[in-house]
Design a protein that fits this description.
By secondary structure, the chain is mostly helical. The protein has 2 helices and no strands.
Length: 116
Amino acid sequence: MKFFSKEFQTRSLRTLAFIISFLLLATLPAGAQVTYAPPPSHNCLRPVRPFEWSSQREKNQYRKDVEAYMNCLKQFVEEQKEAIRKHQEAIKRHNEAAEAAIEEWKNFVKELKGLK
């Protein structure tokens, strides 16, 4: 006696994966929901080099502005890398949860087959 056809099992597995994916997305905090917003941009001010230096003070100020610009960009890059790391960790956790649910379904089907 066959409980479920192969086609039914495949369709059920797909449906289960879809439901789990939907539930995982629905349970994320509002700020973590998937959005397709444009990527963030930095607010760093690019220094403008004068055509001619009028004084040593002006040169010194320009160097300070260049350093501030560089530090601002470095900080922005580090913030983006941290955001990427957090997203990768979340993706890994959600993937593991989905894989565990699929494995649970496979075990359930094996148990049903054993009841023949």
